[in-house]
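Z., the sequence and structure:
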Amino acid sequence: MAENDSWPKGVVHFPEGLPGFEDLTRFVLLQDEELLPIAFLSSLIEPKVCFPVLPIQRIDQNYELRLRDDDRQLLKLNGEPVDGINILCVAILNLGDGSKPPSANLFAPIVINLENWTAKQIIQFESSYSSVSEV
């Protein structure tokens, strides 16, 4: 997404939940103008479950997302996925603890179909991405 674009608004549905939070299937993206481009993916069922996220393109403009056929089916994607057009690809952030710098999980981004708000955290098995990439 471009720097001045705002985050999309709507309920994000994870049919399979998130790893470790399989029972939580409905989230919203929350944003604060002062924190952009960081947003928060917050559970509608359990508000204490909230993840800071950042668009992948803000971390790595050349990021190569790999989707398997079953991922495309679950997301109900029509055509090729284009970040910022028909999908939003975000990384979950670890904001650090003061002794370690903030990092992003590029190995398992969250992909949201912007047409139907279906989402999945998709592990990039055949990639060189790490779950700890400094931001």
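Confidence is low (pLDDT under 50) at residues 1-5. Residues 52 and 120 are 16 Å apart (CA to CA).

Let me know what you think.
H.
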